[in-house]
Specification:
By secondary structure, this protein is α/β, with parallel strands linked by helices. The chain has one domain: Aldolase class I (TIM Barrel, Alpha-Beta Barrel), CATH 3.20.20. The protein contains 14 helices and nine strands. It binds S-adenosyl-L-homocysteine.
């Protein structure tokens, strides 16, 4: 089958097979590429129209107990300037965001045990009580099921936990030999069965990643059926063992965004900050490849440079929440439009 036929089949919900996916990831011509993006846009428009959902990102701590080899805030980076926001500061971020029109707040951070279950739950329920019209998304890494359940009972709606790579040896390589894919998958399954809208995903072009790894990730995504998929290019950080590794490619990232859109038509798919860091128009290109979410930064300006997951991470330009108007113009330029709503997965709409 040629690539256009494969793309059409994917759109018609045929279960993808490994060889087909491998072909798509390695042999797209410019013309195939255009067809892929166009087909992905059609599918997203059937479900979400021209709306682009926005999420206010609150990076509330960069303390982390883990040592992910790729990540700038890994525990063994002694040069990272560590900070954590107080509950009051987090509430101020949310209040500012709500005022600006945000209706989803994403609390993202390292795995920082200073935030006990009790403290986290106070913060979550505090946001939900102050802003009952808004969703709270957590992106705080691995916990036991009981803790996830407590977060959910406190009112958290969604949870982002990228699986990073479903291939065990690659997973171990990316996590300094200290973490396991089994635990990650246990977390994802717990989150889903508890009732969260769940996001998984992976970096594109991470060190050691092969096309076969990516194919396995796609198969995993098609089987797990997450509500959200976070994918952005790997970008090296100069204080990590991967400092000399090349960044992931723009084209590969865009292809994967489109393929995931076709495999899961209803998925909430962000055009990530990493994509916007790799190239200045990255997020617009992501939208044009089928993404339907952007996540501007709501963290206090004073801490933004400290949440450096990778070199050059954009944080003070138009991606910042105060510059919503500028971001909105950028999105307009793609023919899509920012929608200041909660933006749940379409299966949850009445
Ligand atoms: N600690 C939480 C959330 C923070 S990291 C967690 O692990 O889920 C959020 C995401 O940033 C990670 O899942 C990873 O995919 C991405 N990331 C980290 N370092 C990166 C890098 N060097 N380049 C690109 N993305 C990176």
């Amino acid at each position: 089958m040629n690539n256009k036929e494969l793309i059409t089949e994917l759109k018609e919900n045929r279960i993808p097979d490994k060889e087909d996916l491998k072909q798509l990831l390695t042999s797209l011509t410019k013309e195939d590429e255009e067809f892929l993006y166009e087909t992905a846009r059609k599918v997203r428009e059937d479900i979400y129209g021209k709306d682009v959902y926005v999420r206010g990102l609150i990076e509330f701590t960069n303390y982390c107990r883990n040592d992910c080899t790729y990540c700038g805030i890994r525990a063994s980076n002694k040069n990272a300037l560590r900070y954590r926001l107080t509950r009051e500061e987090i509430m101020e971020c949310a209040a500012l965001g709500h005022e600006l029109g945000f209706r989803t707040f994403v609390m993202q951070g390292g795995e920082d045990m200073h935030f006990t279950d009790e403290y986290m739950c106070e913060i979550i329920s505090g946001i939900k009580e102050a802003f009952p019209d808004s969703a709270v998304t957590l992106s705080v890494g691995e916990r036991d099921r009981e803790t996830y359940q407590r977060y959910f009972d406190a009112g958290a709606d969604r949870f982002l936990l990228r699986h990073e790579t479903v291939t065990p040896e690659h997973y171990s390589f990316l996590h300094n030999g200290k973490m396991s894919i089994e635990t990650r998958l246990r977390c994802l399954n717990d989150l889903k069965s508890i009732g969260f809208q769940v996001g998984c995903g992976m970096m594109i072009g991470s060190p050691g990643q092969t096309v076969d790894n990516l194919v396995s990730d796609l198969i995993f995504i098609s089987e797990f059926r997450p509500h959200m998929v976070g994918m952005g290019p790997f970008i090296p950080h100069n204080e990590t063992p991967f400092k000399n590794e090349p960044a992931g490619s723009l084209e590969d990232t865009l292809h994967l965004l489109s393929i995931v859109r076709l495999m899961l038509p209803e998925v909430l798919l962000p055009a990530t900050t990493a994509l916007g860091t790799l190239v200045p128009t990255g997020r617009e290109l992501g939208i044009l490849a089928g993404a339907n979410v952007v996540m501007p930064n709501l963290s206090p300006v004073s801490v933004r440079k400290k949440y450096m997951l990778y070199d050059g991470k954009i944080s003070t330009g138009e991606e910042a929440a105060e510059c919503l108007e500028a971001l909105s113009k950028r999105i307009d330029s793609t023919g899509y439009k920012i929608a200041m709503v909660r933006g749940d997965h379409s299966s949850l709409k009445k």
